[in-house]
């Protein structure tokens, strides 16, 4: 098969479309013929040499895919050759085939096409696990989403609105904020021009955000704590703003607030399977009912992954950038 390889870490040009051995499904795995994958920030970090795949994972980038099952490995039940699926991966999505643990497979939601389904696994699993399973967002509460126009952001807006929450977002342009509003965002903050702490407090009558989904890390740590409501929960899922920050423990104690920090890629198979099962139970009906939808910025041939990475790093996109094998 062909796959995107990284012979040496570097810029987007480090991504090379090359012939490699076909993967073989092991115990509890299936082989998926990939229709499409999606570009994530983690893929950029891996390309740069900063994010090694977990032990035993594919060396090729790509944390999600859609496609058709081509082969069933030993010990797998409930799936058949030819089934159309999408999947959460530890790596290997930028390829024509990938071996996937059966617990990380999802059927295509009704009304979602095979290609656009590649935009779903990583964002739905990240948002559901952090915002709902860890931070326990409830109806009537306020969720603040940093990077509201990103793939994760666009899904977080929709899922929060679907359960009856109020949503505040930050984004860097009027156009991106308008797209967030179309998806249901109630409070729009241009982080280049406005202070999200002040804007969220004003919009919530001084209360603040009950849950914050943060992709920035250190840069926003102090302000995120200030923006939290009493009993608020800060879920950190990224480090785009640095890895080390100063935390005012007194402010955290005064608000009886909590901070969680999670990643998805390196979790044990059992934890990933539990998250995927929860997503299938809670999110898939919303997708099939048309209440939530994948947001796709554009599709590119997989061999043009370098261009897709350039586009992602320019941050002009809204939603997901997909890589298509066909």
Give the topology:
Blueprint: E1 2-5, E2 16-19, E3 29-38, H1 41-47, E4 64-72, E5 84-88, E6 97-101, E7 105-107, H2 121-134, E8 142-146, H3 151-162, E9 166-171, H4 174-183, E10 187-190, H5 196-203, E11 209-214, H6 221-227, E12 228-236, H7 249-254, E13 258-261, H8 269-282, H9 284-288, E14 296-301, H10 305-314, E15 320-324
Helix pairs in contact: 2-3, 2-8, 5-6
Low-confidence stretches: none
The average pLDDT value, as a whole number, equals 97
| Main beta sheet | 7 strands, mixed
| Rounded radius of gyration (Å) | 19 Å
Q: Structural class, judged by helices and strands? A: alpha/beta
Strand content: 25-35%
How many helices? The count is: 10
Shape designation: globular
Please provide the ordered H/E string of secondary-structure elements: EEEHEEEEHEHEHEHEHEHEHHEHE
Overview features:
326 residues, alpha/beta, seven-stranded mixed sheet, six-stranded parallel sheet, 15 strands
């Amino acid at each position: 098969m062909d796959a995107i390889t990284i012979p040496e870490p570097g810029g987007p040009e480090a991504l090379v479309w090359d012939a490699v051995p076909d993967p073989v499904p092991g115990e509890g795995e299936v082989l998926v013929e990939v229709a499409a994958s999606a570009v994530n920030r983690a893929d950029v970090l891996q390309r740069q040499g900063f994010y090694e795949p977990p032990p035993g994972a594919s060396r090729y980038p790509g944390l999600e895919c859609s496609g058709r099952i081509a082969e069933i490995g030993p010990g797998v039940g409930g799936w058949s050759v030819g089934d159309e699926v999408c999947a959460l991966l530890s790596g290997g999505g930028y390829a024509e085939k990938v071996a996937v643990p059966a617990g990380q497979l999802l059927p295509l939601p009704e009304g979602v096409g095979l290609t656009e389904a590649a935009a779903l696994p990583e964002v739905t699993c990240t948002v559901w696990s952090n915002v709902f399973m860890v931070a326990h967002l409830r109806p009537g509460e306020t969720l603040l989403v940093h990077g509201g126009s990103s793939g994760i952001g666009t899904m977080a807006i929709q899922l929060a609105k679907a359960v009856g929450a109020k949503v505040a977002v930050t984004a860097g342009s009027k156009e991106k904020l308008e797209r967030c509003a179309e998806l249901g965002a109630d409070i729009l903050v241009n982080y280049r021009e406005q202070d999200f702490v002040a804007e969220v407090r004003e919009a919530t009558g001084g209360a603040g955000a009950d849950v914050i989904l943060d992709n920035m890390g250190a840069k926003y740590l102090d302000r995120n704590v200030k923006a939290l409501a009493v009993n608020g929960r800060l879920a950190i899922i990224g480090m785009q703003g640095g890895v080390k920050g100063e935390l005012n423990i007194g402010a955290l104690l005064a608000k009886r607030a909590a901070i969680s920090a999670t990643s998805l890629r390196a979790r044990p198979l059992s934890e990933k399977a539990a998250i995927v099962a929860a997503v299938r139970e809670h999110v898939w009906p919303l997708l099939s009912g048309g209440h939530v939808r994948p947001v796709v910025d554009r599709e590119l041939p997989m061999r043009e992954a370098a261009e897709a990475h350039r586009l992602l790093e320019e941050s002009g996109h809204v939603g997901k950038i997909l890589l298509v094998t066909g």
